[in-house]
Specification:
This protein is mostly beta strands and about 450 residues long. It has 4 domains: about 100 residues, no CATH class; about 100 residues, Trypsin-like serine proteases (Thrombin, subunit H, Beta Barrel), CATH 2.40.10; about 100 residues, Thrombin, subunit H (Beta Barrel), CATH 2.40.10.10; about 90 residues, Roll (Pdz3 Domain), CATH 2.30.42.10. Helix content is about 10%, strand content about 35%. The chain has 6 helices and 26 strands. It has a 6-stranded antiparallel barrel with strand order 7-8-9-12-11-10. Strands 13-14-15-18-17-16 form a 6-stranded antiparallel barrel. Strands 19, 20, 23, 24, 25 and 26 form a 6-stranded antiparallel β-sheet that branches. A hairpin with a 5-residue loop joins strand 16 and strand 17. The longest helix has 14 residues.
C-alpha cells in the first residue's frame, strides 16, 4: 500500500468573502475512494481519514470539490485504488476550507439587557413601607441563655436556649415579650434594632396570660416606645402586620388579616386564655412576643402561639389583645405579678368538681375576714361521720356565667380592687345573690 501526504495552501474567504488565511488538506491513499460528507473529522471504511475544517460552518461533499489536484512535485493526477481522484481545496460556497480557525473569540459577550423603568409605588406599598420604617425600631430580639460549664476548661458559659421577639414599652427600658420566651432563663439578652445588645432583668411575669416584662439599661434615645392601639373595635378582615424574628431572622415583616376574634387557647400552665385574636399573618417560632399591628402601625396584640402540625406557620396564629396588655403590663411593672382582685375563697380543683358532676366554681374554703366571709359564703364541710358536704357554688358574676373555677378567675381579671360585683351562688339547690366588694390581692 502506498501512502502519500501532501499539503496545498490556498487563499480562502470568510463569510464576507474577504481573504483571511490559508487552508490545509491532509489525505492518505490506502484504497478505493468512498465519497463522504465532510465535517471536522470523518473516518472511512478502511480507517483512513481526510481531516477538513470548514469555514463558517458549511459542509461540502468530496464529489462537490474540484476533480483534479495537482501535486507540487508533478503534474499527474493522484489515483486512489486505480481510480483518479482529484482532491483540492475549493475557494467558494459562502466560506472556505481552513486549517485552523483564526484567533477570533469563541463567542462575544452580549451587552447587559436594559432595565425597564418602573412606575411609582402603589399607595398600599408606600403605606406598608412607612409602617415598617416607623415601627421596626421598637421591635427587639430576645435571647434566652442558659449557663453551662465547659467540660475541659470548667468555665461557665452562657449558651442560647431559645429566642423570641419583644417590643419597647417605654423609654425607661421596659421590654414586653411572652412568658414562654423567657421561661427557665438563667440569663437574658435583648438586641435592639441598631444591633446593640443589652443584658436584661425580669421585672414581672404573668404566666396565665403568657406575658412578661424585662428591663434593660439602654439610653432613652435608643428606646422608641411602640404606639398603642385598641383591640375591642377590631373587625374580621382588617389588615394586620407582624414584625419579629422568625427562626432568628430579625426585623422580619409579614402581613395578613384578622381571621377571627374571641378565640380561646390554652396557656403553658394549662389555663385557658380567652378573647385571643386569630390571624393568618405568618407567625413562626421566633415571632413569639412580637407585636401585631393595625394599618396605622399601632399595637393591637402580642403574637403568642400558632396552631400547626409541623411547628411552622400554617396560617393560624394567635395574639393576646392589646386591651389586656395595657391592663396587665402596668401591674407587672408595679408588683411583678397580675394584681387580680379577690373575693376571698379557695376553690376545689376543676377536675375533681367535674368528676363529681358539679358545674361552676366550687368553694372549698372561705378566707377569714375576706369579702366572701363578710357576706356569709360557705365552703365544703366535713361531718363527724366522715361525710363531705358541698357548700356554695359560684355560678355567676354580674352578667357573666361561671362554669368553672378557671372561668371565675378570668372574669375577675376584668375588674380592679374596690369594684363591687353581684355574685350568684347555688346552695342546696337554691340560687342566691350577694353583693361583694373586690379586695386587692394579698
Amino acid at each position: 500500500m502506498r501512502t502519500r501526504e501532501d499539503r496545498q495552501d490556498a487563499p480562502h474567504a470568510d463569510a464576507c468573502g474577504k481573504g483571511v488565511g490559508r487552508a490545509q488538506l491532509r489525505y492518505q491513499t490506502p484504497g478505493p475512494f468512498v465519497p463522504w460528507h465532510l465535517s471536522s473529522h470523518i473516518p472511512n471504511a478502511y480507517d483512513d481519514s481526510i481531516r477538513v475544517r470548514i469555514s463558517c460552518g458549511h459542509h461540502l461533499k468530496v464529489n462537490q470539490l474540484m476533480n483534479t489536484h495537482r501535486s507540487p512535485q508533478r503534474n499527474t493526477p493522484l489515483r486512489l485504488g486505480g481510480i483518479a481522484v482529484p482532491v483540492a481545496i475549493a475557494a467558494i460556497f459562502g466560506g472556505m476550507l481552513i486549517a485552523d480557525r483564526l484567533t477570533e473569540p469563541a463567542g462575544a459577550v452580549p451587552e447587559p439587557r436594559a432595565v425597564e423603568p418602573r412606575g411609582d409605588l402603589t399607595p398600599g406599598e408606600r403605606a406598608t413601607i412607612d409602617l415598617f420604617e416607623r415601627v421596626s425600631p421598637s421591635v427587639v430580639y430576645v435571647t434566652n441563655l442558659t449557663l453551662r460549664r465547659d467540660r475541659f476548661s470548667l468555665n461557665t458559659l452562657a449558651v442560647p436556649a431559645g429566642t423570641g421577639s419583644g417590643f419597647i414599652w417605654d423609654q425607661t427600658g421596659h421590654i414586653v415579650t411572652n412568658y414562654h420566651v423567657i421561661e427557665g432563663a438563667q440569663k437574658l439578652r435583648v438586641t435592639l434594632s441598631d444591633q446593640s445588645t443589652w443584658e436584661a432583668k425580669i421585672v414581672g411575669l404573668a404566666r396565665e396570660q403568657d406575658l412578661a416584662v424585662l428591663r434593660i439599661a439602654a439610653p432613652a434615645d435608643r428606646l422608641p416606645p411602640i404606639p398603642l392601639g385598641t383591640s375591642n373595635d377590631l373587625k374580621v378582615g382588617q389588615h394586620v402586620f407582624a414584625i419579629g424574628n422568625p427562626f432568628g431572622l430579625d426585623q422580619t415583616l409579614t402581613t395578613g388579616v384578622v381571621s377571627a376574634l374571641g378565640r380561646t387557647i390554652r396557656a403553658r400552665n394549662g389555663r385557658e386564655i380567652d378573647d385571643m385574636i386569630q390571624t393568618d399573618a405568618a407567625i413562626n417560632p421566633g415571632n413569639s412576643g412580637g407585636p401585631l399591628l393595625d394599618s396605622a402601625g399601632r399595637l393591637i396584640g402580642v403574637n403568642t402561639a400558632i396552631q400547626s402540625p409541623s411547628g411552622a406557620s400554617a396560617g393560624i396564629g394567635f395574639a393576646v389583645p392589646v386591651d389586656r396588655v395595657r391592663k396587665f403590663i402596668p401591674q407587672l411593672i408595679a408588683y411583678g405579678h397580675v394584681a387580680r382582685p379577690i373575693i376571698g375563697v379557695h376553690l376545689v380543683d376543676d377536675r375533681i368538681a367535674h368528676r363529681s358532676g358539679l358545674a361552676g366554681a366550687v368553694i372549698r374554703s372561705v378566707v377569714e375576714d375576706s369579702p366572701a366571709d363578710g357576706v356569709g359564703l360557705r365552703g365544703v364541710r366535713e361531718e363527724q361521720d366522715g361525710r363531705t358536704y358541698v357548700g356554695d357554688i359560684i355560678i355567676g358574676v354580674n352578667d357573666d356565667s361561671v362554669t368553672s373555677g378557671e372561668a371565675l378567675l378570668r372574669i375577675l381579671e376584668r375588674y380592679k380592687p374596690g369594684d363591687e360585683v353581684t355574685v350568684t351562688i347555688q346552695r342546696n339547690g337554691d340560687r342566691l345573690t350577694r353583693r361583694i366588694t373586690l379586695a386587692p390581692p394579698a
